[in-house]
Design goal:
It catalyses: L-tyrosyl-[protein] + ATP = O-phospho-L-tyrosyl-[protein] + ADP + H(+). Belongs to the protein kinase superfamily. Tyr protein kinase family. CSF-1/PDGF receptor subfamily. One of its GO terms (cellular component) is nucleus. It is found in: Cell membrane; Cytoplasm; Membrane; Nucleus. One of its GO terms (molecular function) is ATP binding. The protein is an alpha+beta fold and 851 residues long. The chain has five domains: 104 residues, no CATH class; 114 residues, Immunoglobulin-like (Sandwich), CATH 2.60.40; 106 residues, Sandwich (Immunoglobulin-like); 91 residues, Immunoglobulins (Immunoglobulin-like), CATH 2.60.40; 296 residues, Transferase(Phosphotransferase) domain 1 (Transferase(Phosphotransferase), domain 1, Orthogonal Bundle), CATH 1.10.510. 19% of the residues lie in helices and 34% in strands. Strands 28-36-35-31-32 form a five-stranded mixed β-sheet, with no helix packed on it. The longest helix has 27 residues. The radius of gyration is 42 Å and the shape is elongated. The termini are far apart.
């Protein structure tokens, strides 16, 4: 140190400035030295310890006051003092002995459960408030959860107001005192009830938990529809349909109001004083869960015009409700001319136009005649605006004559005539015509040349075409393949849809011969809301064989009928004035193979354990809006088992209808709303020439990796060969969309190894039970494979099976075994040798077959 920093005081000794202690440590050793005649002398070392005196802060933990404890519970208190350096601190604890009033603790109790009554359905688009009132000591915390009304959604998730299927207006929670008790009230306000769902409110404190499940069933209530037109004409057929939700209503009845004594307001209680009772045909629609009472008037007359009332009764309250529908009837009017056609004189090669201006009810059908002979639209002659306008381009001498327009409807016919005179001759040489003909001949020549070149470049093998047609066929043992199109019926009155009701959109997929297009289908009047559908159709220039194949697909879909897990037929356009169209359900999430690959990063190898028992519903309430966005939710093992179960159920249905799929794979499974999978057949719309899953064998391209040995070698297709394909599909599902037999060359050697008993290893996410099902499906002898009904039962049991619950991050999860314990199985993508297969079957397959 500098000599001038430490000074000597005769009374106090050596003085050290305080800033030295702030800069350096609080513990020092000091000494001084001096030199006398070049000899250095040192003093003794002075030990200096700096001591502070300031107290800055004193804290007692836990800070919450008062601290509530249950009897027998421990308590740890921490007293922390913040002081200046080296300040001496002594802690003294004091217990004043003040009396504390203890309160008994009670678990939460939700009051709405005590007064639970059957829940009335909620009207679509209405504003609804769900209330949860709970008591408990200490005070409870209320949270809201939800899950879709679907067969596979078994677990509830926390309600997110930002991404709710039913828009959430608010969630408010408050406390109130009722009869001296503090109650916690939570109100969930739904802005618009659009979709059926299951809501759950949970009340929780440190003592326990209580839950209330609310069945939020959304319905349109009941209403009246009139078909086929809202403005019927005299003598028309009129159908009145009263649609009432089965969950709410019963006892549907039709009445007609007395036109002489119509009350100003419709009162159901006094309805019978002014009405006469009518009949009707009662039916039940399973898809919409509605009762339909249909009143048919086959030949409506003017005196039938008036008010018709449908009365229904509430199942729970017994209260009656009614709706009124007014039917206007237009009288028929015979055709009459507003302006008669006039005589015209034109020059050769000029244009001619004549109008047939008539009116009537209904609109008359118009026909044109020339010199009393029917006139049709041919080259140069055009009939437009429903035959109201006749146009002739480049008039010739022979176009002169008497033209007559005839207009007819149910009330009769009228006609009017006009004479056309042509001036000039056709003998002159027309240079324009010669040039046009020459140009046309040259164009035709080049078109033929291009067509020949195209056919030589892409010559399609007939055997390949046959393979690319249909996958799903009827069992050849029931109906020979060549007779299936003629054998199966087509009822146009039930399935035919007018082409003008379709609005075609983007192409969803295409093959060498056909394509699938997204479309919107509208109501009869083109004003009612549209539904999204998928339309299968042929490409331009399709052959008669391809047309017959698509017609066969249509008839087979009709024969199969409707099922939740099959892409269902909605209608068809078969009339000759346009292309053949097959209209089926639209599945927004595409095929299962692509979906699984896209969800690999969001896969969870566990599922949350349910706290309450659950059921697998055998029905789904579909809605215009999707119940959830599957792209935003994680994929779980439970989802994979659910997909497998649904495919097995769909194949069970196909087998019961004597149908064989022949190409069962993840690419032919579509995913729709509510996590529902549907079996489909792309048929003509798949390009088997570019798809690597289809390998050439002989003269055909076949999906060899999915085919059973008897199908590969003997061309035998049965329901049991579909079971083999189902095993490969299971491998695809539990490998999250991987291609089967990865790294293996698909050739004759592969087919031989398959026949000799070589099988794939288990995929990474498959439990021993799942892999046992795969091996059972891959039995070499078809009779030893399980049937689809057996697979439905096995997978249904797996879906509901509870595994070991494990705590992780304070949440309860259920882990499913997803890897095999056999150390020799290190790569699920390689092929399992036949001797390893036998060892694994002996270990695992027996338990599965007992089911």
């Amino acid at each position: 140190l500098e000599g001038n920093e430490i000074t000597w005081n005769n009374k106090r000794g050596w003085l050290v400035p305080s800033h030295i202690f702030k800069k350096e440590h609080t513990f020092f050793g000091f000494f001084c030295s001096t030199s006398v005649h070049n000899n250095e002398h040192r003093s003794s070392i002075f030990i200096v310890l700096a001591i502070g005196l300031k107290f800055y802060e004193l804290k007692l933990f836990p800070e919450d006051s008062p601290v509530e404890l249950m009897q027998g519970e421990g308590l740890e208190l921490n007293c922390t003092a913040l002081v200046e350096f080296n300040t001496g601190v002594e802690f003294h604890w004091d217990y004043p002995g003040q009396k504390v009033i203890t309160r008994p603790h009670f678990p939460p109790q939700i009051h709405e459960k005590e007064a639970a009554a059957p829940t009335n359905p909620y009207r679509r688009s209405s504003r609804q408030t769900l209330t949860c009132t709970a008591t408990g000591t200490p005070p409870v915390t209320i949270t809201w959860q939800w899950r879709p009304w679907s067969p596979c959604s078994l677990n509830s998730t926390r309600l997110d107001p930002e991404h709710a299927v039913n828009p959430i207006e608010s969630i408010e929670t408050f406390t109130e005192m009722v009869d001296g008790k503090e109650k916690t009230v939570s109100r969930l306000v739904i802005q618009s009830a659009n979709v059926s769902a299951m809501y759950k409110c949970s009340a929780e404190n440190k003592v326990g938990r209580d839950e209330r499940l609310i069945y939020f069933y959304v319905t349109k209530g009941f209403g009246i529809e009139m078909e086929p037109s809202e403005d019927p004409l005299e003598q028309d057929l009129v159908r009145l349909k009263c649609n009432a939700d089965n969950y709410t209503y019963e006892n549907l009845r039709w009445y007609r109001l007395d036109p002489q004594a119509v009350p100003p307001e419709l009162d159901c209680k006094s309805l019978h004083q002014y009405t006469e009772s009518l009949g009707g045909k009662l039916s039940f629609q399973t898809t919409s869960n509605n009762w339909v009472l249909e009143l048919t008037i086959t030949n409506i007359q003017l005196q039938d015009e008036g008010n018709y009332v449908c009365e229904v009764q509430n199942r729970r309250s017994g209260e009656k409700h009614c709706h009124r529908k007014y039917i206007p009837v237009k009288a028929l009017e015979a055709p009459r001319y507003r302006n008669n056609p006039t005589n015209q004189t034109v020059n050769v090669s000029e244009s001619l136009q004549m109008e047939c201006d008539v009116e009537g009810t209904p609109s008359p059908q118009l026909s044109w005649f020339k010199d009393n002979q029917p006139l049709h639209q041919i080259s140069g002659i055009f009939l437009q605006d429903s035959n109201r306008t006749l146009s002739i381009q480049r008039v010739r001498e022979e176009d002169a004559g008497l033209y007559t327009c005839t207009a007819c409807n149910q009330r009769g016919c009228v006609q009017s005539s006009a004479t056309v005179s042509v001036i000039g001759s056709d003998d002159k040489t027309n240079v324009e015509i010669v040039i046009l003909i020459g140009t046309g001949v040259i164009a035709i020549f080049f078109w033929v040349l291009l067509l020949v070149i195209f056919c030589n470049v892409k010559r399609v093998n007939p055997a390949d075409i046959k393979t690319g047609y249909l996958s799903i066929i009827m069992d050849p043992g029931e109906v020979p393949l060549e007779e299936q199109c003629e054998y199966l019926p087509y009822d146009s009155s039930q399935w035919e849809i007018s082409r003008d009701r379709l609005l075609l959109g983007k192409v969803l997929g295409h093959g060498a011969f056909g394509k699938v297009i997204e479309a919107s289908v509208f109501g009869h009047d083109k004003k009612t809301c549209s539904n999204t559908v998928a339309v299968k159709m042929l490409k331009e220039g399709a052959t008669a064989s391809e047309h017959k194949a698509l017609m066969s697909e249509l008839k087979i879909l009709i024969h199969i009928g409707n099922h939740l897990n099959v892409v269902n037929l909605l209608g068809a356009c078969t009339k000759p004035n346009g292309p053949l169209m097959v209209i089926v359900e639209y599945c927004k999430y595409g095929n299962l193979s692509n979906f699984l690959r896209a969800k690999r990063e969001f896969f969870l190898p566990y599922r949350q354990s349910p706290t309450t028992p659950f059921l697998i519903f055998s029905f789904v309430f579909l809605s215009p809006a999707a119940v959830d966005d599957l792209w935003k939710t994680p994929l779980t093992i439970e989802d994979l088992i659910c997909y497998s179960f649904q495919v097995a159920r769909g194949m069970e249905f196909l087998a019961s209808r004597k149908c064989i799929h022949r190409d069962l794979a993840a690419r032919n499974i579509l995913l729709s709303e509510n996590n529902v999978v549907k079996i489909c057949d792309f048929g003509l719309a798949r390009d088997i020439y570019k798809d690597p899953d289809y390998v050439r064998k002989g003269n055909a391209r076949l999906p060899l990796k999915w085919m059973a040995p008897e199908s590969i070698f003997d061309k035998v297709y049965t329901s049991q060969s579909d079971v083999w394909s189902f095993g490969v599909l299971l491998w695809e599902i539990f490998s999250l969309g991987a291609s089967p037999y990865p790294g293996i060359q698909i050739d004759e050697d592969f087919c031989k190894r398959l026949k000799d008993g070589t099988r794939m290893r288990a995929p990474d996410n498959a439990s021993p039970e799942i892999y046992g099902i795969m091996l059972a499906c891959w039995q070499g002898e078809p009779r030893e494979r399980p049937t689809f009904p057996a697979l439905v039962e096995i997978l249904g049991d797996l879906l509901q099976e509870n595994s070991l619950p494990v705590r992780k991050n304070n949440k309860k999860h259920t882990f499913l075994l997803c890897t095999l314990k056999d150390d020799s199985q290190t790569d699920s993508g390689m092929v399992l040798a036949s001797d390893e297969l036998e060892r694994f079957e002996h270990k695992h397959r027996g338990a599965m077959l007992k089911k």
